[in-house]
Design a protein that fits this description.
Blueprint (H helix, E strand, L loop, with lengths): L9 H6 L17 E2 L3 E6 L2 E4 H10 L7 E4 L12 E4 L1 H10 L4 H10 L1
Antiparallel strand pairs: 1-2, 2-3, 4-5
This protein binds zinc ion (ZN).
Length: 112
C-alpha cells in the first residue's frame, strides 16, 4: 500500500478536512460542499472537487479529460483507495451496472 504523499502546503490543509479512517472505510469530507454532494476545496482561488484533490495528492495528476469516480458510491468520500480515474462513459457504465442509471429505472418500470 503506498503512503499518502504530502507535497507542498496543500496536503496538510486538505487532509485536515477529511475524516481519515481505515483503507476499507469511507473518509468523509468534513468541510464545505458544492458540486452536488461532493466536497469542495479552495485551490488557487477556485473551488475544486475534494475527491479529485484526494486522488491527485495520492496518485499524481489526473489525465486530461478523465473524471474521478467513486467505487463506494459515496460522493463525499475522499478515501483515495475508493477512487479511480475514468471517463464520463465509464462512470455511466458503472452507474448502470449498479442500477443507478436513469435508463435502468426506465427499463424496470417498463418491464412490469
Ligand atoms: Zn468511500
Amino acid at each position: 500500500m503506498p503512503g499518502i504523499r504530502k507535497p507542498g502546503p496543500i496536503a496538510p490543509r486538505f487532509w485536515r478536512k477529511v475524516d481519515i479512517k481505515g483503507v476499507d472505510e469511507c473518509w468523509l469530507w468534513l468541510a464545505s460542499f458544492g458540486f452536488r454532494d461532493y466536497g469542495k476545496f479552495k485551490l488557487n482561488g477556485t473551488y475544486v472537487a475534494a475527491h479529485r484533490i484526494a486522488y491527485e495528492l495520492t496518485f499524481g495528476p489526473i489525465e486530461k479529460g478523465k473524471i474521478i469516480c467513486h467505487k463506494c458510491d459515496n460522493p463525499s468520500c475522499c478515501n483515495p483507495y475508493h477512487l479511480f480515474q475514468g471517463t464520463q462513459s465509464d462512470n455511466n457504465a458503472d452507474k448502470y451496472r449498479k442500477g443507478r442509471g436513469a435508463n435502468q429505472y426506465y427499463r424496470q418500470e417498463n418491464a412490469k
